[in-house]
Queue: 3 jobs
Job 1
Amino acid sequence: MSLDVIALLIAALSLGLAALGFRDYVEGAFQRRQLASRSALAEVERRANSPMARFDAMLRRTELGKRIEQRLVTAGVRIKVSVFVLMMAGAGIIAVVFIWRALAPVLGILAAVGVVAGFFGYLKRQEERRKEAFTAQLPELARVLSNATSAGLALPTAIDMAADELDDPAGTELRTAARSMQLGQSFEAAIAELRDRMPSREIGVLISTLLVSSRSGGALVTALRSISQTLESRKETRREMTTILGETTATSWALLFMGVGSLFMLNFMQPGTVQTMTESAWGMLVLGIGLSLFAIGFFAVRRMTKIDF
């Protein structure tokens, strides 16, 4: 047998072995993919059937749970309703135990109420910050929409493109509106939901312009460019006013902390004084008047410095 024939046989055998190996590799990869998908599905099912998941589903079916979930989404806080409720309950228990032992039992109950108010106040503050961040992006959003419509793109397509170009929160909110339109919702309804999620005067003006243009037409490019310039001016005005009022806002919070801190200072200087005061009607009256004055001062300063831009 010549060397050429032997070489051909070796080459044919090598190709056959390579084909068999490739087939086994493909079958193994397919089987691994199936096992991975099954394990992923099993993991999803396990998480869905966990006590925490069932508790979260139960909360989201209630009216209060739906409101908390909506506020978490609006505030951009990416935690589950059950986690938020458990964190609030845990912080409330800790506050009750600490204030109960440090000051007085009655004030421990008030501390639990303050913890709940603090959690929802945090959500409100995050909502305001997210809305302010979205408002600050409106000039850029108006410019992107103006450029897209001047290039001949339809408004839904322009919104989808702006969602890819802008950062959070504008990108996230526009992506939600674009996804709603892709699922069959009308342009007017999707934009109206965006206005409900991010209510402000600037957003209202921009969305009203888009709605009027989508219904009756008009010089949308010119209007968007004018709105972009106006929103840029308002953005600078808002920034200046926030800087000017920053010291006054800090003063209002200092008043609130002074009221609470005075109780700890009094109890530190004379241990047991606060608890003794809560055991008599006159002591409760004095404590109530003192804390009420600090609270009134806090809300009065906040109200006087609140300016609708």
Note: The chain has a mean pLDDT of 76.
Job 2
Amino acid sequence: MALADSTLETVETPKSRAKRNASGLGFDVLLVVAVGALVIFGLMMVYSATFDWSYLDFDNPAEIFIKQLWWAGLGMAVMFGMSRVNYHHFRRFAVPIIAVTTIALLAVLVMGSLRFGAVRAFIGGSVQPSELAKFATIVYLAVWLSSKSDKIHHVTYGLIPFGVIVGTLATLILLQPDLSAAITVVLIALLLFFIAGADVLQLGAVMGLGGATMWALLQLPISLAETGRERLADYMAGLQDLTQASWHIQQAAVAFVNGGLFGRGLGESHQKFGALPTPHTDSIFAIVGEELGLLGCLLVIALFAVVVWRGFRIARTAVDPLGSLLAFGITAWIALEATINVAVMVGAMPFAGNPLPFISYGGSNLVMTLTAVGVLLNISRRTEAEPLQRKVRAKVTDFSWGNRGRSVSRPGRRG
């Protein structure tokens, strides 16, 4: 995959213009419909999972739902705003975005709110910089990798800077501590590095180093390591005997069994009344299974499948490497978090605190995920509007340590 960022002059044919106008919107309609359905479904499930708790704590059964509704409205506004902003502007703003993210990750360690034994958020748990870090990692790496072309095969241009960038973000997230978010950032980064053209030896080196680092962390006498060891032990025990799994997974299993094929009915979950921890965030898929049954779970999975299908299609048809890497990274992020959340709830993976995108309660994840979808829509808009391109010049922004300037490719030379 060639990774020269190109400035393109487009030629739109009457046929392509008619095709674009037929959609009436100019961007991926199926993606919007699927995401909209997931957000609406999520609002419904958040209300169902929190009305009792909300009434007891706030004397209003809709209090928590209203907060999520505000976050959803903000996220949708940002999504449609980002769909109108040319994603090529990220070339200029990638460094400021990653700098702001790093500052926020540092600031939360000093001024953040302590919740559940971790310092991960501001404003009483509403704003989590780790969610911004996931999006910022995708944006920065997409711009950085698309500027490298074949240079990423060189250790000084590819592997070492990649390790420093990702390692710094992951370390700051681990200090909160937030193991699941740190692993998510690393996995997304590895996928982008692979798609950008890294060879097997580089990937093997990164994965080996990451695995050794994780093993070393688990051996340390710190709370993060103790939590990780406990979760891994519970998972291994649960594979042999479900009754030996963690309390969380046992209660999720009870919810799925009680739900059966058609579910108890919306709002009729029993597990959410104290038995199942965090029913509105990490465990909300189990509430879906209890109230709407297997069919409800399959509907949610089908909607995510549509989002992933359209996202990877946008990545495949993007007009340049930057658009392709951005679309792939965003889609992989959504697919990864949804897969991990579902797999954990059914006992197929060790417990992780990943939210279910668009559905779990939480402002930071919802707003940042919808922001990322807005970038996807902008890439799809340009793809539909630019079915035929003529490359007139290639401009490469090089963030490498050895060359801090900009270079413009000459005729006959690869960008």
Note: The first strand starts at residue 6 and ends at 10.
Job 3
Amino acid sequence: MRFRPLLALVLAFCLTFAAAPNSVSAAFVQGRERGNSDFGKSVNSGQNGVCRTLPSGSSGSISADGSFKELCLQPTQIFVKLEGNARQSADFVPAKIISPRFNSSVDQVYGDLSGGKFTAKGGIDFSLITVLAPNGEEFPLAFSVKDMVAGGGKSIAPGEDFTGTTAIPSYRTGDFLDPKSRAKDTGVDYAQGLVALGGDDEELAKENIKQDLGGDGQITLSIDRVAGNEFAGTFVAVQPSDNDLGSKDPVDVKLTGNLYGRKA
């Protein structure tokens, strides 16, 4: 009997919240949305990886000195260089992006503009992409503007090109087989039996010993629109594909697309 007052109090407390106006409870849970509605509209829409652009005919000039920010490069076409045959030499052929489906861009890259050069210092400066070639072969790659140094004119203006180099990281690291790094550069120990360690067989050694092997790329930023402290244009980048931690020979990949950035 003595528990009845306590039970009644708990029941009254629950009924109070159940009978509260929907608008009050909704406001308490949802707040001011804080951008959630925008996210709901953009997720799986293909818009998250789209770089900003400027209106056609935007012309102006920005001093290529100081620093830049929010540099975004969005690939729109990717080509892989496949081996030729007796009648045809190796050439770039169109490839289809199969992963990630909606976002292969690099974004929010920032850096230095001193001396008329784009020198990247950080940001979301690489993106892992897998493309499908016409022959059915898949090519993973790390589209990268890491350590980019691209020089050109003394100003950022329509018609100006900035050309330079980039550093291409390994698609994976040598630790991906074992988070404790026991596989990195040393081969892998298997509990189930002996592994062919290679010996004089170079192919076996390459498959067993994994290495972090990066590469170098070339890039050209072409400016065609400038408005205020913003600029936009196109880019062409040529870089190696993934080498599967040293077990495969990479192929050349050419990426073209749109760019956007701002002077800081």
Note: Confidence is low (pLDDT under 50) at residues 22-35.
